[in-house]
Write a structure and sequence with these properties.
By secondary structure, the protein is an alpha+beta fold. The chain contains 3 helices and 8 strands; from the N terminus they run ααββαββββββ. The protein is globular. The protein starts with a helix and ends in a 5-residue tail after the last strand.
């Protein structure tokens, strides 16, 4: 009789502690490998099908999308978005000052806090020297959107309760925003 058989024939009916750690370890490694493979494949598929970065020279009529959310590797937060087309482009040069200090964690920030931060962008970290930067602003004609309606649906970000920052979203409404916040999208959605 082998040592394994002696342990398996434990009269108390308990599972052999000799075999359990090896089986559990093997199972854990198999699950970890499967999760990693799914995450890698999901990231590759999303990158290929996702929107591309907005070109440095946006044109009137380009389809653009503002997105927030989607954080996490295995369990992702919901993605909320605003889609539209560029109705106008303006370029200016401005001095980037220190970013406003909100003093709250991101999840505790209010729409007014988000609007204050957005109005100051582009900005530099406190203590850094102010610099001259080129800023491209675009006027986006709103076509469609998806926003959370309660904090349980997602964090209160720039898109919340049918608004972008503090501006109510309406089809055809034009919203002015920094071009660096946007991604290119397919015109048909």
């Amino acid at each position: 009789m082998s040592r394994h058989a002696e342990l398996d024939d434990d009269p108390s009916g308990r599972v052999s502690s000799f075999h359990t750690p090896w089986r559990v370890t093997r199972l854990v490694w198999a699950i970890a490998a499967a999760v990693l493979a799914v995450s890698v494949l999901a990231d590759e598929g999303g990158a290929a099908a996702g929107p591309a970065a907005l070109p440095s020279d946006p044109q009137i009529g380009d389809c653009v999308i503002f997105r927030e959310g989607g954080a996490g590797l295995l369990l992702r937060t919901p993605v909320y978005w605003l889609r539209g087309s560029i109705a106008g482009v303006s370029r200016t040069r401005r001095t980037a000052q220190a970013c406003p200090r909100i003093g709250k964690q991101a999840a505790a920030q209010t729409p007014a806090d988000h609007a204050r931060l957005a109005a100051a962008m582009p900005c530099v970290d406190k203590g850094a020297d102010a610099v001259e930067v080129d800023v491209t602003r675009v006027q986006v004609s709103v076509e469609d959107w998806e926003t959370p309606w309660s904090p349980q649906q997602g964090t209160t970000g720039w898109l919340f309760r049918g608004k972008f920052l503090e501006q109510t979203l309406k089809k055809g409404e034009v919203i002015d925003m920094d071009a660096t916040w946007l991604l290119r999208c397919a015109a048909d959605g």
